[in-house]
Amino acid sequence: MARRQEVERILRIVMGSAILAFGVYNFYYLNNITEGGVLGLLLLLKNLYNIQPEVANIIIDLSLLLIGYKYFGKKFFMYSIFASLSFSVLYDIFENIGPILPSINSMLISTILAGISVGVGVGLIVTTGCAAGGDDALALVISKTTSLNIGRVYMLGDCVILLLSLSYMSIDKILYSLVAVAISGNVIDYIYNHVKTSKSNIMIKSEL
């Protein structure tokens, strides 16, 4: 039983990473929609202080995952590393394949699809008890230690980074990104709470 649960956990992480990588490449990257979280922070640091993203990403992501390790333990940390590597590998695959969807002429539709894909991908990953990256780990920790739900934490953090990004980006780009962030935050919150409620109901039934 335990082995089956581990396999299901790994498969859900891979599935979430695939959806996330697909959305980030096909909807965010190809339509020049920016992000909040660590990705938005890396772009901000690069544009304002010329700090190389590859260096900053390792330091920031690892630091935030270590905070998650402190609160959630070794398994959380190891599965989060696996999720992060899965995303990187799958993103490279989608990038090498290139665009596989028909061109979408509406920026609004692309933004909505971007938010949904990231929300579903990250939502699936966090329901396994790990994080896709450092910002996910931080969101889980803040949600655990405060009264804020996880979707609200994502939205607040992303909005702060996006508003700071006005220092080098046009306001219309930021507005589209804010729409994507709002959608992804709500989708993550819905999936996370739905799975948590389902698990609680199963536990209650097993005790009856």
Describe the structure.
The protein is built from 8 helices and no strands. It is an all-alpha fold. The protein has one domain. The chain is globular.
Assembly state: single chain
How many angstroms does the end-to-end distance come to? 21 Å
* 3D shape: globular
Radius of gyration: 17 Å
The DSSP helix count reads: 8
How many strand units?
0
- Residue runs with pLDDT of under 50 for 5 or more positions: 200-208
Topology order in helix (H) and strand (E) letters: HHHHHHHH
Structural class: mainly alpha
Short recap of the structure:
By secondary structure, the protein is mainly alpha-helical.
How does the SSE layout of this entry go?
Elements: H1 2-29, H2 37-49, H3 53-72, H4 74-97, H5 107-126, H6 134-145, H7 150-164, H8 171-207
Task: Please supply descriptive tags for the structure shown above.
208 residues, mainly alpha, transmembrane
